[in-house]
C-alpha cells in the first residue's frame, strides 16, 4: 500500500508539472523577478544601497529601501535560493511537458486521421460540397497545393505545415538548453573585478562571484601597458582604452589587445572587459631632486566630476591641483580658492620661490574578468528560440474528403491564418473543377 501511495504521489506531481498553464505561470513569475533585478542594481555594497535607497517618508522609499533590498536578497536576486528554486521548477515543468504533451502531439499529428461523421464534422471550421465525384482529380488538386495526401477507399486525408506543430517543441527545447547553459555558467564560472594602475602587473584575485566548480587560471598574469582616453569635440568622453598584455608562467607574452567598452579580450574562455577608469595620483618633482606622489581624490560638484590633490608648500599654506580631463591642463589654486595658474605635464612653475614640475598623472583602469563555460549552450538555446518563432508562423492545415451519395464533402481545419486557408480551399475547388470538366 505504501508503494502504491508513493507512485500515486509521484504521478500526481508529474501531472501537475506537465501542465502547460503551470509552465506559463512560472515563466511570467521568473520574468517579473528578472525585471526587478534589472531595475535594482545587483551585487553592490551596503553603503551603495543606503545612499541610493534611503529610508524616508516618501511612499516609494517606504516600499523599496535598502533594508528591504538587503533582507529580501534583492541585491543578488539571480543567486537568491527562491529564484533558483523557481528556475528548477520551470526546468522540470518544461521537461515533463515536452515528453508528456508536445512529443505525443507531434507523433499524433503525423498519423493520417480519416474523416468521422457526426460530432467530428461539427468541430471543423470549413465545410464544402462538390457535386461531382472524382477522387483522382481531388488528389491531384490537393497535391498541387503542397498537401500530403492519404487515400483509403472513399475517404481522403491531407495535411501540410507539420513543421508548424514542431514550433512549441522547439520553444521548450530552447528554454531547456538556455537553463542548462545558465546552470553550467553558474556552477563553473567566476567573476572578478580589478583596478590596475597603468604599467602595473596584476593577478586575478579579487573574486566577487564564483561557482563551487569554478577554477581560476593560475598560469595567467596581466599587465596594463598603456591607458588612454579619447574625447569628443565637445570634450565629453568618447571612449577609454587599455592596452592589455597577458603573460604565462614563463613571462612570455601570449596575447595583447587594446580593449574598450564592448570590445573585450578573450583568451581560453576567460574574458577581460573594460569597465571603468580613475585618476589615482599625481607624481611631481620639487626643486632639483625630490620626486613625490600625491593621492588624487574624485569629487563631484553640480554634476561635474573632477579630481583634486593638495600639496603643502609650508607649515600653514598649501596649493590645490585640479584635474578636469586627463589630457587637459592642470589648474592650481591657492588656499583661498584663487586660480594661480594652469600648467601642462613637465612644465615648470615657481610658487613661493620653489620650482614645481608635474611629471605624470597616474591613472587606474577597471577590469571585469569572467569565465562563462555555458555561454555556447545558452546562445544555442537563443538561436533555437529564434528559429522556433519563425516556424511558429507556419500554418498547420488538415483536409478531409469523403463521398456522400452523389457528391464530395470537403472538411478543413487550420490553426492560424484562416482567411488564407479559405482562399486555399477555393483554389483547390477551382483546380478540381477545371480538371473534372475537361
Automatic annotation (TrEMBL):
The keyword rRNA processing does not apply. The chain crosses the membrane at residues 20-40, 83-103, 169-190, 377-396. Pfam families: ResB. One of its GO terms (cellular component) is chloroplast thylakoid membrane. It is found in: Membrane; Plastid, Chloroplast thylakoid membrane. It is a multi-pass membrane protein. The keyword Transmembrane applies. GO terms for biological process: cytochrome complex assembly. Residues 22-285, 331-425 form the ResB-like domain. InterPro entries: Cyt_c_bgen_Ccs1/CcsB/ResB (IPR023494), ResB-like_domain (IPR007816). Keywords: Chloroplast, Cytochrome c-type biogenesis, Membrane, Plastid, Thylakoid, Transmembrane, Transmembrane helix. Belongs to the Ccs1/CcsB family. May interact with CcsA. PANTHER family: CYTOCHROME C BIOGENESIS PROTEIN CCS1, CHLOROPLASTIC. Required during biogenesis of c-type cytochromes (cytochrome c6 and cytochrome f) at the step of heme attachment. This is Cytochrome c biogenesis protein Ccs1.
